[in-house]
Design brief:
single chain, alpha+beta, 3 domains, five-stranded mixed beta sheet, 7 helices, elongated
Length: about 350
C-alpha cells in the first residue's frame, strides 16, 4: 500500500513505482544507461542456458553409452569386433563434436566479449551534458546525497536521490569507510564506491517513478539493509523539490515541538545536522527535511511518526551494529520529540 501511495503522490503508475522492496525490475530498463546493459544481460542469459542444454545432452549421451557397455561384458568374438568398429566410429564422432563445440564456444565467447566492450562504450558517457551532478557518499550503512544548487549552494539528504525525468544526472561516488557498490538496476549498472577516490556514473529516467537501489558489495553485518531510492520527477516538480530542500528547517512552534527540539539538541545533535538549528553533527544523516522522506534507516522501514520513534528507541534491534544507538525516552519525551520531527518537512 505504501508503494501505491508514493506512486499516487508522483502522479504516476509506472513500473518504477511498483518495483517494491525486492529488486523486482532488475531485468527491465527505465532509462538509456540501463538499456544496453539489459540487452547484454538477456544475451548472456541465453548463452548460459544454451551451454547448460549442451552439457545436459552430452552428459545424457555419456551415461547412455556407459550403460550400453556394461550391459554386454561377455560378448562373442564376432560381436566384439562389431563393437570395436562401433566404438571407433563413436570416438571419431565424439572428436568431431568436441572440435565443432570448441570452435562454436570460441566464437560465442568472442562475441560476448565484443558485446560487453560495446555496452561499456555505450554507457560510459551520457548522450548530452548532465543537467545535474550529485555526490553520493557511502557509509556503514547508509548513503549521503549532496546537491549543488544553480546558485552555488549545497545541501545534503540521505538515502534518496531526486532527479528530473528525461535528463542525465551525473553521480560522483565516494566512500567514507569501506568499499561499497552503488546499483539502481532499472537505471544503470553497478559502480563501486572506494575510499580515497571518486568514481563516476550517470542515471536517467524516461518517466516519473520510484526506483529501488542497493549496495551490492558486501560491506558488513548490515549490508543487506543499505538501500536507497531514486525518485524521478517531472522537471518542474523536481525544481520545486530542490528549492524546498535547500531551505533550512522551519522554526519550531511553541509547546511540544520546542521541547522536542531542545531534547534533540541535547541527545542527538552530536551526530546529526538540522540546518537552521545548532545541530551540526556529521556522523549520521542530515535530518533537515526528515519528514519529507518515504523511508528511513536506509530503506529499512517506512517513514511514519511511530516508526521514527521506534528507530530512535530500538535502532539496535532494527539494524544491529549500526552506529545509531538505542535512546531511552520517557513517554513525554517521545511525544515532544515526535512533535518536532514532524515539523521537519
Amino acid at each position: 500500500m505504501v508503494r501505491f501511495v508514493a506512486c499516487a503522490s508522483l502522479g504516476t503508475a509506472s513500473p518504477g513505482c511498483l518495483a517494491g522492496t525486492p529488486l523486482a525490475y532488475f531485468l527491465h530498463s527505465a532509462g538509456p544507461a540501463s538499456g544496453p546493459v539489459r540487452v547484454l544481460d538477456w544475451a548472456l542469459a541465453a548463452l548460459c542456458v544454451g551451454v547448460c542444454i549442451v552439457i545436459a545432452v552430452l552428459l545424457y549421451a555419456a551415461i547412455r553409452r556407459k550403460r550400453r557397455e556394461s550391459a554386454s561384458p561377455d560378448a562373442a568374438p564376432s560381436q566384439t569386433s562389431v563393437a570395436d568398429e562401433r566404438d571407433e566410429r563413436d570416438e571419431r564422432t565424439a572428436n568431431r563434436i568436441i572440435a565443432i563445440g570448441t570452435a562454436i564456444s570460441a566464437v560465442l565467447l568472442l562475441g560476448a566479449l565484443v558485446g560487453m566492450l560495446r555496452v561499456l562504450a555505450a554507457v560510459a558517457d551520457p548522450p548530452s551534458a548532465p543537467a545535474l551532478a550529485v555526490t553520493v557518499t557511502a557509509y556503514d550503512w547508509w548513503w549521503k546525497v549532496t546537491y549543488r544548487t544553480p546558485d552555488g549552494a549545497s545541501f545534503a539528504t540521505a538515502n534518496e536521490i531526486h532527479m528530473p525525468t528525461g535528463q542525465p544526472v551525473r553521480v560522483d561516488l565516494q566512500s567514507a569507510d569501506v568499499v561499497h557498490a552503488f546499483w539502481v538496476p532499472a537505471l544503470a549498472g553497478k559502480t563501486q564506491a572506494i575510499p580515497g577516490q571518486t568514481n563516476h556514473q550517470w542515471l536517467q529516467a524516461d518517466q516519473p517513478g520510484v526506483w529501488r537501489g542497493q549496495c551490492t558489495q558486501f560491506c558488513g553485518p548490515q549490508h543487506a539493509h543499505m538501500a536507497m531510492e531514486v525518485v524521478a520527477q517531472p522537471p518542474d516538480d523536481f525544481a520545486h523539490w530542490l528549492d524546498a530542500q535547500a531551505k533550512a528547517a522551519a522554526p519550531a512552534p511553541d509547546g511540544a515541538p520546542t521541547r522536542g527540539e531542545k531534547l534533540f539538541m541535547a541527545r542527538c545533535a552530536g551526530c546529526h545536522t538540522v540546518r537552521g538549528t545548532q545541530a551540526d553533527g556529521a556522523q549520521g544523516p542530515d535530518l533537515t527535511h526528515l519528514a519529507s522522506r518515504r523511508l528511513i534507516a536506509a530503506g529499512t522501514i517506512a517513514n511514519t511518526p511511530a516508526n521514527r520513534l521506534e528507530w530512535v528507541a530500538h535502532a539496535q534491534q532494527l539494524k544491529p551494529e549500526s552506529l545509531m544507538p538505542d535512546i531511552a525516552l520517557t513517554p513525554a519525551e517521545a511525544s515532544d520529540l515526535s512533535a518536532w520531527l514532524d515539523t521537519l518537512q
